[in-house]
Amino acid sequence: MTLKDWIFGPQMMGALFLLIGIVTYYFPAKKITTWYGFKTPSSRNNQQTWDVANRFAAVFCIKAGIILIVGGILINLLVTNMLMPHKTRQLLHIILFMGSGVFIGPLLIVATEKHIDKTFKE
Questions:
Q1: Which terminus, N or C, of the chain has the lesser number of Cβ atoms within 10 Å?
Q2: What is the rounded CA–CA span in Å between residue 119 and residue 56?
Q3: What predicted TM-score, i.e. pTM, was given to this entire model?
C-alpha cells in the first residue's frame, strides 16, 4: 500500500469533517449569516435556534470526523491484508471516500434538524 492509499479514503473525509467541526466549534458565527454556519430554514428562525443548531452540528462533525478517521485506518489495515489487485483497492478507496461524505452529510442535517425540533418544541 502506498502513502496515497493511506491518505485518500474515509479517513480523509474524516479529517475534513473534524477540521470543519473544530473551526465551527471554536469560532462560531456570532449572528445569523448566509455564508458561514449550519444554514437551514429552521436554524435561521432566530438567534437562539441558530446558536443551538450550530453548536450541535459542530460537535456532530467532530464526532463523525473521529469515527471516519479511525474507521478509515481500520479499513486500510483490513484491505492491506486482502488479496486483491491494486486497481480494485483504489476503486474501493474512492467508493469509501465518496460514500462516507454522501452518508455523513445528510445524517448531519437530519440529526441537527431533529435536535432543533426536540429543543424548541412549541
A1: C
A2: 11
A3: 0.84
Please state the length of the chain. 122
Q: Within the chain, how many helices (H) and strands (E) appear?
A: 4, 0
pLDDT at residue 1 greater than cutoff 70: no
Domain count for the chain, please give it: 1
What mean pLDDT do residues 6-15 have? 80
Q: Which domain holds residue 41?
A: 3-119
pLDDT of residue 61: 96
Cell of 84: 486483491
pLDDT of residue 122: 60
Q: And the C-alpha cell for 30?
A: 456570532
Judged against a pLDDT cut of 80, whether residue 51 lies above it is answered with yes
Please answer whether residues 24 and 58 qualify as being in contact, where contact means their C-beta atoms are separated by less than 8 angstroms.
yes
Residue 24 CB partners (closer than 8 Å, separation 6+): 36, 37, 38, 54, 57, 58, 61
Contact present, 10 and 68 (Cβ < 8 Å)? yes
1 is written with which cell numbers?
A: 500500500
